[in-house]
Amino acid sequence: MDIITHKTISTRLCGTPVSVENGASRVSLETDKEMAVDDFGLVHGGFVFGLADHAAMIAVNHPNVVLGAAGVKFLKPVRAGQTIIADAKVLDRQGRKQIVSVDVLSGDDTVFSGEFTCFTLDNHVLAPSGS
C-alpha cells in the first residue's frame, strides 16, 4: 500500500515506515545523541511523540489528515542509541474523525502508549479558504 500522507517528513527525526496497510502502520526510529537531553542519554519525549504521531498519520493515510487531540502516557525512558518501533491501528472511524491507538516499543518493552484523534479534511489545513 502506498503512503499518501506526510511525504516530506524527516524520517531521521520522526521515523521510517516499515509497513502500512489499511488502518495500520509500523514506523521505526533510531534514536541518537542529538535527541538526548542530558549526559545520561535520555531521549526527549518530543521525539517519541513525533514517532507515534507519524505512525498514526500513516495508519489513517489520507493526504489531508491532521491531529486534533492526543491522550498519551510515557511509560519508560528511552536512551539515545535505542531503536524504537511505533505500531498504530485505527480503532474507530466516525466520518472525518478517526481514533488511532499507538504503542511504541523498545525491544519487548512498551515505552509509550497513546490514543490519537485524527481528522481528514477536504483541503490542506494551510490552504487558503475556498481552495
Provide structural commentary.
The chain is an alpha+beta fold and 131 residues long. The protein has one domain (11-120): Thiol Ester Dehydrase, Chain A (Roll). 15% of the residues lie in helices and 44% in strands. The chain contains two helices and six strands; from the N terminus they run αββαββββ. It has helices spanning 11-14, 45-60; strands at 16-21, 24-30, 65-74, 83-94, 97-106, 109-120. A six-stranded antiparallel sheet has the order 1-2-4-5-6-3. A hairpin with a 2-residue loop joins β1 (16-21) and β2 (24-30). The chain is globular, with a radius of gyration of 15 Å. It starts with 10 loop residues before the first helix and ends in an 11-residue tail after the last strand. The model has no long low-confidence stretch (mean pLDDT 97).
Quick synopsis:
With 131 residues, the protein is of the alpha+beta class.
The name of the CATH superfamily reads Hotdog Thioesterase
Strand content: 35-45%
Evaluate the radius of gyration. 15 Å
* CATH topology value: Thiol Ester Dehydrase, Chain A
> Spans with pLDDT under 50 lasting ≥5 residues?
none
- Distinct helical segment count: 2
- Output the strand order for the largest sheet: 1-2-4-5-6-3
Approximate shape? globular
Helix/strand class: alpha+beta
Determine and state the CATH class.
Answer: Alpha Beta
Tell me the helix content: 10-25%
List the helices and strands and how they pair.
Blueprint: H1 11-14, E1 16-21, E2 24-30, H2 45-60, E3 65-74, E4 83-94, E5 97-106, E6 109-120
Antiparallel strand pairs: 1-2, 2-4, 3-6, 4-5, 5-6
